[in-house]
Amino acid sequence: MMVLRNSGSEILLITFFWLLVSFQQTNAQEKGTYQSLQHALFSSGQLAGDQGPQDVQWSHSGDQYSYTEKDLQHFSPEIRIHDITNEEDYLLFHPAQHTFPGTDVPFHFDDYQWSNDGSSILFQTNFSPAYRYSGTFDYYHYDINSEELTHIVYSAVSAKYSPDGKKVGYHKNGEIFIYDLKTGSEKQLTTSAKDHFYNGRLSWVYEEEFGITEAWKWSRNSRYVAYWQTDERDVETLLSTDYEGVYPEYRTIPYPKPDGNNPKVRIGVLDIETGENHWIDVDGENGLIPRIYWTANPGELAVVWMNREQNHMQLYFYNVDTQDERLVMEEKSDDGWIDIFSSFSGADDYLYFPTDREEFFWMSDRDGFNHIYRYNYDGNLVNRVTTGDWEVTQIVAINPETEKIYFESTEESPLERHLYSIRFNGTAKIQYSDKPGRHEFNMSPNGKYYFDKWSNTQTPHLIELRTTQKGGDLIETIADNSLVKTYLNRYAYQPRELFSFTTEQGVELDGYLIRPNNFDPDKTYPLVLMIYGGPGYQGVFNEFESSTWVQYLAQQGYVIANINNRGSSGYGRDFKESVYKRLGILEAQDYAATATYLAQRSWIDENRIAIRGHSYGGFMSAISAVLYPNIFKLSLVGAPVTDWRLYDSIYTERYMGLPDENDENYNNSSIMYHAHKLRAKMLVTHSSMDDNVHIQNTMQMLSAFAEAGKDVDLRIYPKGKHGVHYNEQSYLLLFQVYTDYLEKHLK
Predict the structure, then answer these.
(1) Where are the alpha helices (DSSP H) in 434-500?
(2) Count of other CB atoms within 10 angstroms of residue 471
(3) Which sign, positive or negative, has the C-alpha torsion 390, 391, 396, 401?
(4) Chain segment 530-585, per-residue pLDDT in tens
(5) 542: helix, coil or strand?
(6) Using CA atoms, how far apart are residues 595 and 53, in angstroms rounded to an integer?
């Protein structure tokens, strides 16, 4: 059965009507094209299609899920419940029916979380940003039965129900608090916070590079709270400003750099009943503590420690009652780094602790490919769960009752992702997804149902609800791609074409290219490499191309291409970690090889090749241009790291080691070191409010180019932070500048 959610389908119908009246067709045989860059950029929904239900959260039974849906007549979305077993879909919470307690102001929310028993909802609202991924919210508790909305706290960094649903814990002003839902009373658990010294809050660098924003965790029995205490008073700071006002205000951010002072952290455990605090003896001053987990045993905490370079990992267990601490597992790497999560694959954790059993699972690439290993609580390996010359990219669910793990992997192809299950003992592996392409999964906790969002180069995105009980049978199509297909029948579209080749260095690379609209093999076209290229990232998949800027450039006569360079995930440890301690060198070599390979086609002009990237991609666009000045004629550089001594400590030391021990490669990976080689036309864009890649990077690069007698073009968008643009107008302007630069210097 096919189900189209009302609001999404209405929006798509409106978009489709707009398409009919706004696109031009010169005759019945020729397909329509974008009228302008603005038309293209603000038409992204035409290729992305219906995104399906938003903010999906599964019930603990796994038979229901909640989701949000925009009511076009109101400011805030409503919450609906979908019951899979009886196909019922009903409204649970409509913000128009509620006001903020004690006011006449209509209620609205940014996000929501359920209590474990499903009896109440904790709303987040009135967000105020701090760093890229965090900020403060006001929190409200909603009782499903009484329909009563209660204010909990203003301006808290994070808040969460206790597992038993009786309390709400939160962090505010550097301290941890508990709110008792029955009595309405608040209790402060910590009292030692100072400027840049926090209980239950992380530093900028931990948040940015370890992907965590919540610095405390309830124990499973609701008695304890484990937390990070963060001291960043000795961390050097950076200043940023947007230059507004007569005298600009400057923002100060503690920002550790390679071989500098990291924030000091230690792990505490609070007993909610007694108020007692226990400190765990794990060195968070000279090393790093990137993860903590509660085990299946009450009051037992697992703590992950790593050295600064992140090539040595130790797992400790700490018992709150006995205060016993023991080393359970250890892993080292002599020629690379150790991953404990992957932001690119969506794997927030590589360690998993199932409930009700004394064992855990660890994802590791120790044998050359990322696989799942099963351990008992003594640290002994019980068995390997998966094996083969392919990668497990993430675990999506674990069911202890059936002893099944559901995971995503590259077994079919590094360019695809598919869903499998396997028993804890490594037997009875089952594949569920069978359509070629890249699949993304959102699964119920017990592994019974899952959303499968997938596409391939010829198939626009679909979202399907499926069940594992019948080997992946389709229950319903949540969001189809019929309107995108209608668009493709009427208007110009250039799909990705996958290719592979072997470089002169003997490296096999996968890539895609997109031909110009109305392609003529007797003409010659300029080539633009659109890249990112950072460690663990992957830019080429068998998936549908949905970038309207890329389609606009194809309509203007450009060939677009990208590759999975060395350093990319999906191809095993040796391929990924070949870039270790020499970032940019092998990646640039691969981009140059790709440009040379593609230029062998008679219809690609070897004298008109550009490279464009942002962030790590900005670094790669710049360093490729200076290392291969005879290949790249134009470089578009967005928010680049220009010398790894200028970036943050945790990211840089993971991939480059310590500067004193790797000085030559730090130099070789610096744009400034090669500034005298520049021949390409280069456009650099950055923001003075970028708290990730500080504008210092660009300023030092500009000085180096000037001192080498090399002129580059520069655009500064002061308010834009790491994305450079900061609103619709600046977004349009930024990409107009990019496009005009290509038109002027590459056409």
Answers:
(1) 482-490
(2) 12
(3) positive
(4) 999 999 999 999 999 999 999 999 999 999 999 999 999 999 999 999 999 999 99
(5) coil
(6) 41
